[in-house]
Design goal:
Blueprint: E1 2-8, E2 11-15, E3 20-24, E4 34-37, E5 43-46, E6 54-61, E7 83-85, E8 88-95, E9 98-103, E10 112-116, E11 121-127, E12 129-132, E13 137-139, E14 147-152, H1 158-167, E15 174-176, E16 182-184, E17 190-192, E18 199-200, E19 203-204, E20 210-215, H2 226-242, E21 251-253, H3 277-282, H4 299-306, E22 322-323, E23 326-327, H5 335-346, H6 359-372, H7 387-400
Parallel strand pairs: 1-11, 14-20, 14-21, 15-20
Antiparallel strand pairs: 1-2, 1-5, 3-4, 3-6, 6-8, 7-12, 8-9, 10-11, 13-17, 15-16, 18-19, 22-23
Helix pairs in contact: 4-5, 5-7
The structure holds zinc ion (ZN).
């Protein structure tokens, strides 16, 4: 007798219960030579007595399974299982009625992993989950889904993010791993806990109205793999088909909605300056800046033509004519107020547009810069409005109007 154990790639001691495990000839569409179902420990005992030496397929078909294209349809109707795993085909070698070697082809690696075990468990299979039900969610109430919030995990290991969302007090609807594979953890209809204290376009508590997508990615210097962005864009497409109430301009980053308080937290670098917003914009997702040529040089009461090379900054004040850190007694424009009004119209939280460039305004400017100057689109994320930032604010304003 030969024991096979089937578990979860992203969670230790999480058995795949009720999976069908069969040994098949390599020939396509052949019937199983022997098969069985995993029990409560995820194990099954196969009797290989009648099987000759040679190569075979070990096929794992989980109790609940689906293929790629993970999105709104997964775990959306009927009794919701705790887990949905991918199926996998593993090449095995049988010698003397025992499994003596296992091999996962490159094509099958997206579905999980397999290795030889010890004297008791001969093969250990770990399946890639597509649905792991997090307990961290509650009702959206009557709120419509109109926003997608994009995050990065800040940690490189998918398992860590998955386990955090299974245990701690946070969650997201979807996680995209570094190979572009998607794991769903909260039903779209439920309110996941990803955005925290947040404000966008005058509304606070964005968890109620949003779908949260976490991308497995570390710091501010690591680029996002192309497959990950491709997968994200496809997922956004599926979400937009399912929920036509999601507005393009509301496809935003966690950092965009992070300035509800005066103090920025870790979310201020989320999804960070490496995130390629332009690729989303090319697919008509997100806030899409208008043409630079349409921005008048007279913008912001001619501030940037009057004081060339200057930048609006912390502690500036229109009423006191203190601008660019200097009192400009003869200048009567109100550029700070206009910056505040424009950022608020776009969606950023600046508090009251009172012409006082306080910390909250500086934070909103910084988060705006982080988004629109990300991935090499030029400009610095320093919280000051220089001419380049001013032009970009007007471009984005034109794009969302
Ligand atoms: Zn986040």
């Amino acid at each position: 007798m030969t024991w096979v154990k089937v578990g979860n790639l992203h969670m230790p001691n999480d058995p795949a219960i009720g999976a069908t495990v069969g040994v098949y000839p390599i020939t396509a569409n052949a019937a199983a030579l022997v098969s069985g179902n995993t029990g409560r420990w995820g194990t099954v005992n196969l009797n290989l007595t009648d099987i000759n030496n040679g190569a075979y397929i070990l096929r794992i078909t989980p109790a609940n399974t689906t293929t790629e294209g993970v999105g709104p349809a997964v775990a959306s109707t009927g009794p919701i299982p705790a887990r949905i795993f991918r199926s996998i085909d593993i090449i095995i070698y049988i010698t003397q009625h025992d499994i003596t070697d296992v091999n996962v082809t490159v094509a099958q690696m997206v579905n999980g992993s397999a290795s030889r075990g010890g004297p008791e468990i001969r093969v250990i299979v770990n399946l890639m989950p597509v649905w792991m039900q997090s307990g961290n969610h509650n009702s959206r109430g009557s709120t419509t889904i109109d926003t997608i919030v994009i995050h990065h995990t800040g940690i490189k290991v998918t398992s860590s993010a998955v386990n955090t969302f299974m245990s701690g007090g946070t969650s997201a609807h979807y996680i995209i791993d570094t190979q572009g594979r998607i794991i769903k953890m909260v039903q779209d209809t439920r309110r996941a806990w990803h955005a925290g204290s947040s404000l966008w376009r005058g509304t606070s508590g964005i968890n109620s109205s949003s779908i949260g997508i976490e991308i497995v990615h570390t710091g501010q210097t690591d680029s996002y793999p192309a497959v990950q962005l491709t997968s994200l864009i496809a997922l956004i497409g599926r979400l937009r088909v399912a929920y036509d109430t999601i507005e393009t301009r509301n496809i935003i980053g966690h950092s965009d909605i992070a300035t509800s308080n005066n103090v920025l937290s870790r979310k201020s670098g989320d999804p960070g300056t490496q995130f390629n917003w332009q690729q989303l914009e090319n697919n008509c997702y997100g806030m899409i800046p208008g043409a630079a040529t349409n921005v008048a040089a007279t913008k912001y009461d001619n501030y940037f033509t009057t004081f060339t090379g200057d930048s609006l900054r912390n502690d500036d004040n229109d009423a006191q004519h203190r601008l660019g850190g200097t009192v400009r007694a003869n200048y009567t424009g109100n550029p700070v107020t206009e910056v505040q009004q424009d950022l608020a119209t776009i969606g950023y939280s600046v508090g009251v547009a009172n012409g006082q460039y306080g910390r909250r305004t500086a934070n909103a400017v910084k988060m705006f810069q982080q988004h629109f100057f990300a991935d090499g689109r030029g400009g610095q994320a320093n919280g000051r409005v220089d001419n380049a930032t001013a032009i970009m604010i007007k471009r984005v304003l034109a794009g969302v109007d």
